[in-house]
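Subject: Sanity check before I submit

Could someone independently write out the structure tokens for this chain? I want to compare against mine line by line before I put it in a report. The sequence has 302 residues.
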Amino acid sequence: MDVGYFFKLLLSGLTRGSIYALIALGYTMVYGIIKLINFAHGELYMIGAFTGLIVASVLNYAGVDPVLTLVIATIFAIIFSSAFGVTIEKIAYKPLRNTQRLSALISAIGVSMFLQNFVLLFQTSDFLSFPNLIPEFKFLAPVENYLSSPQILIYICTAIFLIGFTVLVKFTKIGKAMRATAQDSKMSLLLGININKVISVTFLTGSAAAAIGGVLISSQVGQINFYIGFIVGIKAFVAAVLGGIGSIGGAVLGAFVLGLVESFGTGYISSDYEDLFAFLFLILILTFKPSGLLGKSLKQKV
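---
Independent answer below. Compare away.
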């Protein structure tokens, strides 16, 4: 077995997993709080990428340093995606919060289609070039055949966000409110917790993570279009379900497992079935463990 090729596929799988983890967190957080599958979450990733492209294009034209351009573009992407995420919750989900789950699910699908066509209307259906804003790290020269600068930056940003998010949830007041709301929203309301604020922060945080992933992966790949959020969003949802929907640790684990399965599958079998591997693996896992890798089985009384 070619050890070098194996190691290259391993790092590629970790890169995929890092991006899936950033997006899967949004799915599992929203589901954990309000029991809603936000199928528009992938489009927030796409909006973040397009916002980054627009800002980067303006700054590049003005001759701004690429590193500073990347930072500013990412900040604007976070702001716009977070604003869209919170607005979507207020307009499309909040009025349906006490209705049947199917109504909110249909609303989420409708929002996804609306955002796709919104970007299509103001941009184009063609792929657009995304500038490479990530500098070459000289210390990676000995391993440049296996590990690139965009990959290492994706690892670092994902790790920082996951650590920051863990601190937010476990050691801050709003984090405790999020955990309480996820456990029992009605009791939390009786205890004086502002449920609306908690839900808004949840959407804001998840949208910010998706925006970061959108800018980083677009800078690595070099092109985007209005449809990129759909496929990535579906795979991130698969990762969340794979790990156990509603479990933050499960979403991260599922994302990395899915990324590795895709990478090794395309590397050793065929790249033609890249999307198929994800769903076959999901079916296999859920057949033997329906609650996911870290999910808990809920017993219901009849």
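---
OP: Matches mine. For the report I'm noting this point. The first helix runs from residue 3 to 34.
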